[in-house]
Amino acid sequence: MGTIDLRMTKRGVVLYIEDYDDLDDLFVQIKNKFSQMNGFFSDDEKISVMLKDKEKYSKDITEIVSFVEKIGFKVGEILVGEMNQKVKQNPISVREKLSLVDDEARGLQLLNPTKVIKKTIRSGQAVIHDGDVMLIGNLNDGGEIISAGNIVVIGEARGVIRAGSKGNEGSIIYATIMNPELIQIATHVIHISELVEDAVAYLRGGKILVQRFDLVKFNQPSNVSD
């Protein structure tokens, strides 16, 4: 069993997830927590989902947000930090905040496997999706894309890019200009120091490689070969 809490704070309602071992058990706990608070929420109220350890649970963020919205609650932002249950006035300490891109662009509907977003993702904004993501625009410093599938950026990618968030090591990342703060595919992470144009990031032998598109051979729809 994990440790979760649902609290009313100065930021509004915060669903705090400290730790958990099994995602299905977590969903049961979340559903029970919201059932206990039935009648306390307005139809248009957005809540915050707060994780104590974003890196540890980053692979599950898409499913957590999707589940919360599936049971009828809108998620407005992802917070990273800690909650002190003994403090009543301001029980949360926030280390990081990611505001989700508006509902029309964010694409949490599982019926649409590829989400196309035509806008710039700015610092403090996040796109979280259970399928592939295509961004026609720039990913600015401090912005983040988390996708269970592949990511394509027709523009400059300077923020954080996480593909294959559910563990799919065959996921790839393409960007017209690849210059991100961090690249993650499944559980593998790298930082690149030099800008690469027309670039593809993919896994090979347990390591993430970043190469120009014309040097990469594709042998399957979601895989590459040397």
Automatic annotation (TrEMBL):
Residues 116-195 form the Septum formation inhibitor MinC C-terminal domain. The keyword Transcription regulation does not apply. GO terms for biological process: cell morphogenesis; division septum assembly; regulation of cell septum assembly. Transmembrane segments: none annotated. It comes from the Bacteria. Keywords: Cell cycle, Cell division, Septation. HAMAP family: MinC (MF_00267). Interacts with MinD and FtsZ. Belongs to the MinC family. Cell division inhibitor that blocks the formation of polar Z ring septums. Rapidly oscillates between the poles of the cell to destabilize FtsZ filaments that have formed before they mature into polar Z rings. Prevents FtsZ polymerization. This is Probable septum site-determining protein MinC.
